[in-house]
Amino acid sequence: MDFKILDKLLAGERPYRLKQVNKAIFKDLLTNWDDTTNLPLELRSMLSRQFPLSIDGRIIDSRESDSVKAIIRIDGDMLIETVLMQHKTGRNTVCVSSQIGCALDCLFCQTGKLGYRRDLDPSEIIMQVLFFQRYLKSRGSSISNIVFMGMGEPFLNYDNVLEAVRSINNHEKFEIGARHISISTAGLPEKIKLFADEKIQVNLAVSLNAPNDELRSRIMPLNQKHKIPELMESVKYYIKRTNRKVMFEYVLIDGLNDSDEIAKELVDLLKGILCLVNLIPYNGEPPLKSPPKIRTGAFKNILQENGLNVTQRSRFGSDIKSACGQLVFGEERSEG
Ligand code: SAH
Question: What are residue 286's DSSP bridge partners?
Answer without folding.
Answer: none
